[in-house]
Design a protein that fits this description.
The protein is an alpha/beta fold. It contains nine helices and eight strands. It has helices at 16-27, 35-47, 55-58, 89-98, 102-118, 128-132, 146-157, 166-182, 204-219, and strands at residues 5-9, 30-33, 64-69, 72-77, 80-81, 121-125, 138-143, 195-198. The strands form two sheets. A five-stranded parallel sheet has the order 2-6-1-7-8, with helices on both faces. The chain starts with a strand and ends in a 5-residue tail after the last helix. 39% of the residues are buried. The chain binds 2'-deoxycytidine-5'-monophosphate.
Length: 224
């Protein structure tokens, strides 16, 4: 039986993961956060201090895997659950850099395709609709203005110690957008057949509702 694949791409901080989780819970699909895979490779490279010219050869020892525990994705590096460790600003920036390396993308390509072939998925990333799942049943490109994305992130971090300033967060977002959109291999861009959802003026519920509506219009009867 073929599986239903939904691709959600877009820039950092557009709310992809939160919204994709809400939508996948509604549909009973598995939510796959592919950014976590790139982050885990970045952690591997950082922890082992691997120089650029050794990255490709080192990948065969990386041992990155995903597990779905009670429906939630956990990511493992050499059997160690690193799902929280990969969420630092340093790893965000390192992941943006390492994800530009073609060998890294190639290494993670098969993992992503296999999960989508075996499960009904909502998969989020940067190149899901363009490269990983070009035949996805539904493709969404979810974005929001850089200022609004920085604003949301700032509100999320404001309570925490060592919170960066709004301007630092905005600069970081603009830099990552630039890196993700201008790399040679699989840059972040909207697939020709993706539907654009701009969440600048929408809250999470409204964004999730807009996406569920697009999905039901596309695959109608396939929805539970
Ligand atoms: O979605 P995220 O912020 O966790 O992703 C971390 C980095 O990984 C991001 O800067 C770009 C990269 N990435 C990618 O190149 N392709 C994907 N499918 C997912 C993430």
């Amino acid at each position: 039986m073929s599986t239903v694949n939904i691709a959600i791409d877009g820039p950092a901080g557009a709310g992809k993961s939160t919204i994709a989780k809400m939508v996948s819970a509604k549909l009973g699909y598995i939510y796959v956060d592919t950014g976590a895979l790139y982050r885990t490779i970045a952690l591997y490279i950082t922890e082992n201090d691997i120089p650029d010219d050794k990255i490709e050869a080192s990948l065969e020892n990386a041992d990155v895997s995903l597990k779905f525990i009670d429906g939630a994705q956990r990511v493992f590096l050499g059997g160690r659950d690193v799902s929280e460790l990969i969420r630092t600003p340093e790893i965000s920036m390192a992941a943006s850099r390492t994800s530009a390396i073609p060998a890294v993308r190639k290494y993670l390509f098969g993992t992503q395709q296999k999960i989508a072939a075996e499960n009904n998925v909502i998969m989020d990333g940067r190149d899901i609709g363009t490269v990983v799942l070009p035949n996805a049943d539904v493709k969404i490109f979810l974005t929001a203005s850089a200022e609004e994305r920085a604003n949301r992130r700032y509100k999320e971090l404001a309570e925490k110690p060592d919170c960066p300033t709004y301007q630092e967060i905005l600069d970081d977002i603009i830099k990552r957008d630039y890196q993700d959109m201008h790399r040679e291999t699989a840059p972040l861009k909207q697939a020709d057949d993706a539907v654009l959802v701009d969440s600048t003026e929408l809250n999470l519920e409204q964004s999730a509702d807009a996406i569920v509506k697009i999905i039901s219009e596309k695959i109608g009867g396939g929805l539970c």
